[in-house]
Design a protein that fits this description.
248 residues, alpha/beta, Rossmann fold, 44% helix, 17% strand, globular, binds NADPH dihydro-nicotinamide-adenine-dinucleotide phosphate, oxidoreductase, KR_dom, SDR_fam, Sc_DH/Rdtase_CS, SDR family oxidoreductase
C-alpha cells in the first residue's frame, strides 16, 4: 500500500520536467494526481499515460498561469474531476536570464506573474478545497540564496516564494496543513537545456554541485514525496534544498 493512498494531489506544470517527475512519484505512492499543463496537452497526456501504466490514477487539466483568472480557471477544470484536495505542488515556473540593464518592465512582470503571483492565488483557491492535514509544497530554487547578477529577476521570484512558504505555514498550522518549499539545484529538464546550451556553462553548473553533475527529476521528486507524506508532518515553513549541495 502506498503512503498517499486515498489522497488527491495537484501538481502544476507536470506535463514536463520536474513537475512530471513529481506527479509520477506521488502517483506511485498512491495519490490520485491532477496533471496540470500550460500549453502542452500532449505531454500532459503522456504523463497521465505513464502514471496509468504504473498502475496509478491521474487526469490532465490545462490552464495558462500567470494571467488574470488563472487560478479560478485551473480549479474550475479540477472540480470537474475531484471534489477535494490534499496535496498542492506549485511547480510551474520559468527562468529569465537577463541582467538588470536588459530587463524590461514586461520581462519583470511576466516572470513574477508566473513564479510568484500564480502560486499565491493557486494556493488561495486550493485552500477552499484542501482537507485539514493537507500539504502545500512550493518549488523554489537554490538561486534564492545566491547572487545571480546575470538573471536578477528570477532569483528574486524564488526568494518571494520562500517567504510566502513561511508566512503561509504559520497561518495554516491550526488546520494541520504543512507548507514547505523544495529548492532544486540544476536539474536535467528542458529549462536547463535552454539555459545551459553553452557547454562551458553546463560544465560550470555541474561543477557547482558537490557531486559534480546535474540532478535528475527523480532526485527532486523523492524529496517532494517525503514532504507530502505523513512522515513529514512535523516539518513546516521550511525551504529544503534538493540540489546535490550546489554552491555550498
Ligand atoms: P520545464 O520548463 O521543464 O517545465 C515547466 C512546466 O511548467 C511545464 O509543465 C509547463 O507546461 C509549465 N508552464 C510553464 N509556463 C507556464 C504557464 N505560463 N502556464 C502554465 N504552465 C506553465 O521546467 P522545470 O521542470 O525545469 O522547472 C520546474 C520548476 O522547478 C520551476 O518552478 C523552476 O523554476 C524550478 N527549478 C528548476 C530548476 C532546474 O534546474 N530545472 C532548478 C531550480 C528550480 P507546458 O509545457 O504544458 O506549457
Amino acid at each position: 500500500m502506498g503512503t498517499l493512498n486515498g489522497k488527491a494531489a495537484l501538481v502544476t506544470g507536470s506535463s514536463r520536467g520536474i513537475g512530471r517527475g513529481i506527479a509520477v512519484r506521488l502517483a506511485q505512492d498512491g495519490a490520485r494526481v491532477a496533471v496540470h499543463y500550460g500549453r502542452n496537452e500532449a505531454a500532459a497526456k503522456e504523463t497521465v499515460a505513464a502514471i496509468e501504466a504504473g498502475g496509478g490514477q491521474a487526469f490532465a487539466i490545462g490552464a495558462e498561469l500567470g494571467v488574470d483568472g488563472d487560478a479560478e480557471r485551473l480549479f474550475a477544470a479540477y472540480d470537474e474531476h475531484a471534489d477535494s484536495l490534499d496535496i498542492l505542488v506549485n511547480n510551474a515556473g520559468r527562468t529569465m536570464k537577463k541582467p538588470l540593464e536588459d530587463l524590461s518592465r514586461e520581462d519583470f512582470r511576466s516572470v513574477f506573474a508566473l513564479n510568484v503571483e500564480a502560486p499565491f492565488f493557486v494556493a488561495k483557491e486550493a485552500l477552499k478545497r484542501m482537507r485539514d492535514g493537507g500539504r502545500i509544497i512550493n518549488i523554489s530554487s537554490f538561486v534564492a540564496r545566491v547572487a545571480f547578477p546575470a538573471s536578477v529577476a528570477y532569483p528574486s521570484t524564488k526568494a518571494a516564494v520562500d517567504n510566502f512558504t513561511r508566512s503561509l505555514a504559520k497561518g495554516l498550522g491550526p488546520r494541520g496543513i504543512t507548507v514547505n518549499a523544495v529548492a532544486p539545484g540544476y536539474t536535467q529538464t528542458d529549462m536547463v537545456d535552454a539555459v545551459l546550451a553553452d557547454p562551458e556553462a553546463r560544465a560550470s553548473a555541474e561543477a557547482a554541485s558537490a557531486f559534480n553533475r546535474l540532478g535528475t527529476v527523480e532526485e527532486v521528486a523523492d524529496v517532494v514525496a517525503f514532504v507530502a507524506s505523513d512522515a513529514a508532518r512535523w516539518v513546516t515553513g521550511q525551504v529544503i534544498e534538493a540540489s546535490g549541495g550546489v554552491q555550498l
